[in-house]
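Lecture notes, unit on protein representations.

Consider one protein chain, 341 amino acids long.
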Amino acid sequence: MAKRLKGRTYILEGDVSIEQTASVVGPFEGEGPLGKYFDVVNEDDLMDEKSYESAESGMLKNSIELLMKKASVNEEETDVIIGGDLLNQITATTFAVRDFAIPYWGIYNACATYTLGLQIASLGIDSGAFKKAIVTASSHFSTSERQYRSPLELGTQNPATSQRTVTGAGSCLVASGGGGPYINDFTIGSVTDLGQCDPYNMGSAMAPAAVKTLIEHFANTKTDLKDYDLVLTGDLANEGLNIAKELLEEYGYPGENITDCGKLIYDDSVQYVNNGGSGAGCCANVFNGFIYKLMKEKRINTLLFVATGALLSTTSSQQSNSIPCIAHAVTITNERRKYNV
């Protein structure tokens, strides 16, 4: 079973593998620098559905079906689906999984939903309760824009600090045993709120949460930035990543081996995305479509994956409340690491 290493950091005793992944994205994401790594690139955002909300559910269902096909598993062999999205009452996920005869845990931590799902799945598998769990997360530019910001028909211009919500659904199969990559350990985040109230500048709001979790993870595991081939945050995008780097350097953790999913998924020199990407589907697809393949090829062997979430709502923003944020860290390695407990 998983054991507490120190603070909010836990290590897994057994071999918990990410056995397979699937990534499904929209056309704009397919035009970005990672387009060739995604399994499916849809031709349009509606995806033959009558609404963008139905399109997001269909995209997520497609990613789960594709994952199960790639992993050669059926519904009877799958113990649970763990996932969420950005819509009210996580309806995109719930509507997608209703067609599967698989137990379901709906979760929400905004853009940090995916790493939260990896933590929950790994705990269940390491305890022996599960053998196979599907972790999934999605978002859609058009559904998020009209829920959190403005109707698309208005053509509202967002400020330079804003991020574009990724249209994408990513799923992975977490299983007992296997040949890796392994979920080695993780640190559970706590809510951080430094009083930032601008919903169009979420990168700056989330950066302190990412740094807080990273510093605790480094201290608890007695590691440093240099001990990982890559530290991957999501979704701070360009501005948030720069803030996080500056803060880490102030705390004595300088390094260039850190980047962000929201920075990687788009090419802001040719794609109009303002500050970069965001959304629950952003880090799910950057990891499943791009980073996972680099790990399987042994081009990355040690990854510290730290997804961040801005836990606001349209109501809280309209009432001028600040933005509570969270970050969850997961260490994923090709070779198991051992710590003294």
